[in-house]
Amino acid sequence: MDRERARRPRTRVCGISEPSHHPAHHPSTRTRDWVHEAIRLVEADANRSADTHLHVLPLPPEWGVEVYLKDESVHPTGSLKHRLARSLFLYGLANGWITEKTTLVEASSGSTAVSEAYFARLIGIPFVAVMPRATSPEKIALIERYGGRCHFVDRAPDMYAEAERLAHECGGHYLDQFTHAERATDWRGNNNIAESIVDQLALEQHPVPEWIVVGAGTGGTSATIGRYMRYRRLRTRLAVVDPEGSAFFPAWATGATDYTTGVASRIEGIGRPRMEPSFMPGVIDLMIPVPDAASVAAARHLHAVTGRWAGGSTGTNLWGVWQLVARMRSEGVRGSVVTLICDGGERYRHSYYDDGWVAAQGLDLAPYTATLERFLATGEWAPPA
Q: Residue 325 belongs to what domain range?
């Protein structure tokens, strides 16, 4: 789609003039200088924020297991998606898809759109997020705070086609996170999240983790981490946790690359109703399906024991982490496990931390909370039947 759009002639739609990118039409010196400066600005942001904090979750010393939380909520836009947005912008700039006259469009109602709006403002070009009309006011406000414009559709599955149509109409570029996430990030290193984790663990008791646990939305993070661990020849295994209704776990388990569920995830940022092009099953060692009630209970439990506010996807991660810690203990394995705080809980006061919302969703958190409390007190893992 991007190569086809690159051959279109100059057009003026939505008040934006976009030069042709036909191979015979070389970019002007002014455009090349602008791209160089835009890349400098984006890379300067990475220099300030890429090495996020790695927190230790205290566990009984006799367990012989350390659990670390890489806190992605401290990025300037408050989430793991800051890394993805940065990579997508560098990818588009280096490919010649983004110039000083490009309008950027994305299909996202969540943290990716927030981060992309930030980078669009940083380099001074327009950004439009295509999202369902039912998107929470909090997310809309965050996107608009960074200068983004929100364009609404009535049905979530219509976002992709509408984003592509709008980009064509405006002579712009569709960022398309679900296609480009796995290829936009330099998985060999360049201070990606996997390299950052390995470097930060260098002085710890178990510097090579037994497991890294992440969720999948686009699949870009799991692809980057899985590839990097193989490239560095590390024994670390990758576990991907998946919420209710997502297509990723059943597709991984069955090998069906076209698996669809048609169900939207209640755990924002992870889970998809269809297999996305950026999801790479071959780099994953284990997938763990996680009930939504367990995700919410674990996020709340994290706050209860550490005071840290985190979103539901962090709770999904932690439910998987505790299962793997229990497995390590039963097998007599000593070592470390790493997972992510994907974003802060302040974005979810109206949902995961709202008892009324939880009740309206029909979620019973009590048995999952009891499982977590019992495990951390006794080391025994006994999830609800």
A: 48-78+186-378
